[in-house]
Write a structure and sequence with these properties.
The protein has 508 residues and is of the alpha/beta class. It folds into 2 domains: 275 residues, Rossmann fold; 179 residues, no CATH class. It contains 19 helices and 15 strands. The strands form 4 sheets. Strands 5-6-4-7-8-3-9-14-15 form a 9-stranded mixed β-sheet, with helices on both faces. Strands 1-2 form a two-stranded antiparallel sheet. Strand 11 and strand 12 form a beta hairpin. Helix 6 packs across helix 13, helix 7 packs antiparallel against helix 13 and helix 17 packs across helix 18. It binds adenosine-5'-diphosphate (ADP) and magnesium ion. Adenosine-5'-diphosphate (ADP) binds next to helix 2.
Length: 508
């Protein structure tokens, strides 16, 4: 599929009494946020229209899903725009799969950077889930402890088996010895088997490498390194795996095993709970079981529209975990592309977007324009985002994040907070104050004094009764479109729009 690469190509034509303006691909890649109450026409009005326009312009994309009917909508959208051949649906029972660990290994060079990348990805997903739950703590201790556990378990797995798999990680975490004594003995009944096996294998690999290194030395050097401490220093210098193993050993013996039961079990539980969800079907077959992936995030760059049909309403926590994981890898892949070689715009689509937020979203959004990522996030209101982006300073975080999505569309809404925000964003304008003033003078004459008064262009109540589509409204959905930065036409940066729910891509 060919694509439009001219950033000034219009996507929407904005007509108003003040004139005509264009909303272009440039505006698309600066991000869109659609707000509106339930049934206000977000999905079937502005959302659907933008989706059809983006598809028609040849964008690649990623679609995250919350409701089970989103798959059918996108099948229809693609059909209507001649894009059916580009739609790839990753879903239970379908032909596609994506092994995220293999994908990451292939992208990372060298063992240590793989571990760092994996920890970063897993941490992002785990923390996104935490933030969603009520008791999110910003406690640095837990975060550091969890990071260190992940680092060391992944390194151990890598060192012992030469690759990382979810089941190996899970088994190792589950069987970390409870005491230093358990560490020394492979107690079949005590359940330390997997950990012990990995630990012994890693030790064996490191010893073999050490042996190889030592025999490779000149006789003179071997002589020089007779003393114990010196040989160890030289070994740690020369064989990176030996250094790594020393750290792993130190971590478990000195840091992790001595932790109190309660502390340990909390950290164990967060990590192994996450891994456990990935090990269960249908997710296991989609993301872990097969070595070969049939799709990768990079496919969006050649025009594929990847739809993750693991709707949160059906698959709950694991549906969200997997979609956030894919989203994050996808964002990283899009950011790494060379825009000189491939300038196809791609869209990131999330209806009910508050389900898929993670801690790096604001950073990605800040560079989305140069990576040509046209984000469309749809959500009812600001409090939804406060709850999902959680933590302290939620309001500040959310508002600065929303600042990175330059176009906002506000549909009918009963949420006061969102309506106030919208009203403030659109801002003030000077209106003529027509109040009459009567001066009692000799002639008893009446004069009209004209003064200008600064007032809200759209008051918060102005968003309550916008048209929400359906037959009663002749399938028209109303909304205010606000563009940050530059104006829509003249010096106005908002326009009241009507979106047609029955819009056809062949219409202009
Ligand atoms: N294709 C359609 N044609 C006509 N009316 C629709 C269509 N889809 C949804 N509606 C109606 O339009 C209104 C807005 O729906 P929707 O876009 O799903 O709202 P939201 O996504 O904001 O919750 C609802 O009253 C819904 O019943
Ligand atoms: Mg909707």
């Amino acid at each position: 599929m060919k694509y439009v690469c001219d950033l000034d190509q219009p996507i929407l034509t904005l007509d108003a009494s003040a004139g005509r303006g264009y909303w272009t691909i440039r505006h698309a890649v600066e991000g869109v946020q659609i707000f509106g109450g339930i049934g206000s026409g977000k999905t079937s009005g502005s959302g659907r229209m933008l989706a059809l326009k983006y598809l028609r312009a040849g964008f690649g994309g990623l679609v995250l899903t919350v409701k089970p009917d989103e798959k059918q909508s996108w099948i229809d959208y693609c059909q209507q725009t001649g894009r059916s051949g580009d739609l790839v649906i990753l879903e239970p029972g379908g032909p596609h799969r994506f092994n995220f660990l293999r994908y990451e290994s292939a992208k990372s060079s060298g063992g240590s950077s793989l571990t760092e990348n994996l920890v970063d990805v897993l941490k992002t997903v785990i923390r996104a889930a935490e933030e969603k739950d009520a008791g999110k703590s910003d406690d640095a201790f837990w975060e550091t402890a969890l990071d260190m556990l992940m680092f060391n378990v992944i390194d151990l797995c890598q060192l012992a088996y030469g690759h990382v798999s979810v089941s190996d990680l899970y088994n190792i975490v589950q069987t970390i010895p409870k005491t230093i004594e358990d560490l020394k003995t492979d107690d079949e009944h005590g359940g330390t088997k997997h950990f012990h096996e990995a630990f012994e294998r890693a030790k064996y690999q490191v010893n073999a490498l050490a042996e190889e290194w030592f025999t490779g030395l000149s006789f003179a050097e071997q002589q020089r390194l007779q003393q114990e401490p010196e040989v160890e220093m030289a070994l740690l210098d020369a064989v990176p795996q030996a250094r790594l193993f020393k750290y792993i050993d130190q971590f478990f013996v000195e840091n992790f095993i001595p932790l109190t039961d309660k502390t340990r079990s909390i950290i164990d539980f967060i990590f192994s709970g996450f891994l456990f969800r990935l090990l269960r079907e249908p997710v296991y077959s989609l993301f872990c079981r097969y070595d070969q992936s049939t799709i990768t995030p990079e496919d969006s760059l050649s025009g594929k529209i990847i739809l993750l049909n693991l709707p949160v309403k059906v698959y709950h926590k694991v549906g969200r975990d997997c979609q956030i994981l894919f989203k994050y890898l996808w964002q990283r892949a899009m950011e790494q592309r060379d825009p000189q070689k491939n300038e196809r715009p791609v869209f990131l689509w999330a209806d009910e977007a508050q389900n898929f937020m993670h801690e790096h979203d604001a950073d990605f959004q800040a560079t989305a324009r140069s990576s040509r990522i046209a984000t469309v996030y749809i959500s009812q209101n600001l409090p939804n985002y406060y709850a999902s982006m959680g933590g302290t300073k939620a309001e500040f975080k959310v508002k600065s994040f929303l600042g990175t999505l330059a176009t906002k569309i506000f549909h009918a809404n009963a949420d006061i907070e969102t309506n106030k925000y919208a009203s403030e964003l659109i801002g003030d304008a000077l209106f003529e104050d027509r109040s009459e003033s009567i001066t009692v003078a000799q002639n008893f004459s009446q004069t009209h004094s004209r003064s200008l008064k600064l007032e809200r262009v759209v008051r918060p109540e102005g968003f309550v009764r916008l048209k929400t589509g359906g037959p009663l409204n002749d399938f028209r959905v109303e909304g205010y479109l606000h563009r940050q930065g530059d104006s829509v036409f003249g010096n106005v940066n908002y326009v009241k729009m009507r979106f047609n729910q029955q819009y056809q891509p062949t219409d202009s």
